[in-house]
Write a structure and sequence with these properties.
single chain; 7-stranded parallel sheet; binds zinc ion; 6-stranded parallel sheet; binds adenosine-5'-diphosphate; alpha/beta; GIY-YIG endonuclease; globular; Rossmann fold
């Protein structure tokens, strides 16, 4: 067999080598290989069949650097599953599992020399030393009085080298080396927290989760995943914390996934605070760790020194030994889906990893994804509910404002702020309370909406909004290809005020400053966040009440907890509803529910104001009533009718190229081939321009495919792709279980 080896170093070279019979090489092994006249170290990405006829003799792997592969057997199984399921190369998966920092030897652990005074030094000897060698005596005295009778050699000063040598020769001290950990959080101070007394529902949740952990050492069949559905503020995090403690008590390790570290600082802090007594056992995998820090954290995890790992998407590959519990917080968040190869979904990979380990897994959310919800209905997952806020505060009052009426009042001007929201903001300012304003800005594709009656141009076949294409002045459905002309007036009410939707956070800030000149504002969006630590700084200012009104996109809807916030406004709840994405309604429901959870977290009662042009849409009405079940029921009916997930897998095949025709033609060729021998149960959509038709100077076309079963779909597409030679300047991307349809 051959091994495909990624050579260490910045140029990321990949070469194939023959595997000598005596070497037990598997994926993830570190090896030494010849390259030109030299040798180099590298990582085995894949084991391959040798090519049938080779023109030249393949060079051989010289040696194994470490007999243990960097990748654990379970993670190797996970890697193979991802490669198969998502149709990605095993190489790209191994690259994700073993971060570059870990593959490169330059980052190997830093060590330092330390001096330790030996035990039971004879006082008479010590007295002699004091008289004859004052310097040696001074050093020894320091060491004897240091913790563990040890100090780093560097701390004793450069001139101490000869004295240390003599002391060691006389047997008074020992010199040795120790690993130094580069601690990314060394400067942080944490106040420890104690477990809270659980309320009845929390206790019940905890009992079930911890009982499934207790089947030590390893359960014969993995426990089915738990879906913890708890309204915002119901105390899910406390259940996570105590379940994690239970796993640690059994000597196991814990993996906690959060949507994004920077946006969930409070969740991370609560884990650190609870487990602070465990001294360094919590590893937080930030995306901004230095290479050295990443290397150290990875090895601490691998050795079982860090027993709780918190991280975003890629932390699902953390090499924890003896894993007992995986927690996926906010499991519905789409940031768990990776949009580069391999295009895995971290929640789904986590579920799979839990089955392979085997270990307990808890998916938590106030607004679970319909995929997970469906799994509870079919009893693949086990549902646990928390229906009440843990702190006994009531859910905030949600008011829905019909912006069609505001529009009439404001004489056709773009209505950003309703009278109601404006008054509410003024009241908060007067009382010294804080407000958050959200702008729902999903996607770039704009839909047409009537400002008179709220009508949105929809596809007659698919229950998604039609997308406006400026280039040819048409409305197109991105699911089935249906096209229509752009109406000059509203087809419902004949109002000529039918127009494209949209305004940005900057515009909002500008308008607000005019209306409320005395208020202190801050804006959180991708533009404002370019500066390092900008987010941290703003959140800190907001916490210390130096800002009255925070304006942001859905970036800030997650995991923030500000007791003084009593008003949350959503300026344009609709905007997300009409993007060409069958999950649009689901996301709007989630956004409103999550955002509403930010209000009234403290002693003060909260109020939420939702501005919308479609006040009767189900996602808005059910969110207003905090009714997940009602929402899920009607949304599932729509999904079932139109065969969308969770009733089918939905994949997108995209072709892109600098040459528009070539991209389109390539995809049409693939379409023809996919159509031949199309396995039963797979439906193949038409070739369509992507909503984002041009991006980075590349023209994009796509096909949507749906299937009951995932494997036949991936296999069929991979099969055709392997048999097709693509033009050099065309890139084809296959995205299984796609979340991004733009
Ligand atoms: P969630 O994660 O479901 O949004 P949190 O865990 O953040 O909810 O809990 C909301 C608030 O309730 C927090 O301030 C938390 O400290 C508090 N809390 C949670 N559980 C309890 C409990 N059993 N007793 C008292 N307060 C609790
Ligand atoms: Zn359609």
């Amino acid at each position: 067999m051959n091994a495909r080896v990624l050579i260490d170093g910045p140029s990321e070279l990949v070469f194939d080598y023959a595997i000598p019979a005596e070497l037990p090489v598997v994926e993830g092994c570190r090896v030494r290989v010849p390259i030109r006249q030299k040798t180099s170290s590298g990582t085995v990405l894949a084991i391959l069949e040798p090519p049938k006829q080779s023109e030249f003799a393949m060079r051989e792997i010289q040696s194994l650097i470490d007999p243990e592969p960097l990748i654990t057997p379970t993670l190797l199984k996970v890697a193979r599953w991802i490669a198969n399921y998502y149709g990605s190369s095993i190489e790209s998966v191994i690259r994700s599992i073993l971060p570059e920092a870990v593959r490169t030897e330059d980052n190997s652990a830093k060590t330092r020399r330390i001096a330790t005074a030996t035990e039971n030094i004879d006082p008479a000897e010590l007295a002699k030393l004091e008289k004859r060698a004052a310097k040696q005596y001074a050093i020894l005295f320091l060491l004897i009085n240091a913790p563990d009778r040890t100090l780093p050699v560097a701390d004793l000063g450069e001139s101490s080298a000869p004295s240390l040598k003599s002391l060691a020769a006389k047997g008074f001290i020992k010199i040795s080396t120790e690993d130094v950990r580069r601690d990314p959080e060394a400067t942080e101070t944490i106040v420890p927290s104690e477990p809270l007394v659980l309320n009845n529902q929390q206790q019940e949740a905890f009992n079930q989760i911890s009982a499934s952990l207790g089947t030590s050492p390893t359960p014969p069949t993995p426990p089915s995943p738990y879906l913890l559905l708890g309204v915002t503020g119901s105390g899910k995090t406390e259940v996570y914390l105590q379940s994690a403690q239970a796993a640690l008590d059994l000597g196991k390790t814990v993996l906690v996934l959060v949507p994004e570290i920077a946006l969930t600082p409070q969740t991370v802090r609560r884990f650190k605070a609870r487990f602070s007594q465990l001294d360094d056992q919590v590893a937080v995998l930030h995306s901004n760790l230095s290479q050295g820090e990443r290397f150290d954290e990875w090895h601490r995890i691998r050795k079982g020194q860090a027993r709780i790992v918190i991280g975003a998407r890629s932390a699902v590959f953390a090499p924890l030994p003896n894993l007992g519990l995986i927690i996926v917080d906010e499991e519905h968040e789409t940031s768990y889906k990776q949009e580069n190869p391999p295009r895995y979904h971290a929640r789904d990979v986590a579920v799979l990893r839990a089955a392979f380990e085997p270990c307990t897994i808890v998916l938590g959310s106030a607004t679970p994804s319909l995929e997970s919800w469906q799994n509870t209905l079919t009893e693949k997952y086990h549902l646990i509910r928390l229906d009440q806020r843990a702190d006994a505060h009531s859910m905030p009052l949600v008011r829905v404002i019909d912006m069609r009426l505001e529009k009439q009042k404001q004489k056709g001007q773009v209505a950003i702020l309703s009278d109601r929201l404006r008054t509410a903001l003024e009241q908060r300012l007067a009382k010294g309370e804080q407000s958050i304003l959200f702008l729902n800005r999903r996607g770039f594709a704009r839909s047409l909406q009537c400002h008179g009656c709220g009508y949105v141009c929809q596809c007659p076949h698919c229950a998604v909004a039609l997308t406006y294409h400026r280039t040819d002045e048409r409305l197109v459905c991105h699911v089935c290809g249906h096209q229509s002309i752009v109406p000059r007036k509203c087809p419902e009410c004949s109002n000529p005020g039918i127009a494209l939707q949209g305004y940005g956070t900057q515009k909002v800030e500008e308008v607000l400053q005019k209306i409320l000149p005395e208020a202190r504002f801050a804006r959180i969006d991708a533009d404002a966040m370019r500066r390092k630590n900008a987010l941290k700084d703003i959140l800190k200012k907001f916490k210390t009440k130096k800002i009255d009104i925070l304006i942001g996109t859905q970036m800030i809807a997650k995991g923030l907890h500000f007791p003084n916030v009593t008003l949350v406004g959503i300026l344009n709840a609709d905007l997300g509803l009409h993007v060409p994405d069958f999950r649009a309604g689901e996301r709007t429901f989630q956004l409103i529910t999550q955002v509403a959870g930010r209000a009234g977290r403290g002693e003060l009662e909260g109020e939420v104001i939702v501005q919308t042009f479609t006040p009767h849409s189900p996602s808005i009405q059910f969110a207003r009533k905090h009714d997940f079940d009602g929402y899920a029921e009607q949304e599932m009916e729509m999904r079932r009718q139109f065969r969308f997930p969770p009733f089918a897998h939905c994949a997108v095949l995209t072709a892109r190229s600098g040459h528009e025709r070539r991209a389109e033609f390539t995809l049409q060729t693939l379409h023809l081939r996919l159509k031949e021998n199309l396995p039963a149960g797979i439906s193949l959509g038409e070739v369509l321009p992507s909503p984002l038709i041009k991006s980075h100077d590349q023209f994009r076309f796509q096909i949507t495919l749906r299937s009951h079963q995932a494997r036949p779909l991936t296999n069929h597409v991979q099969n055709i792709l392997q048999k097709t030679t693509l033009p050099e300047d065309v890139t084809v991307v296959f995205d299984m279980d796609a979340y991004n349809f733009s």
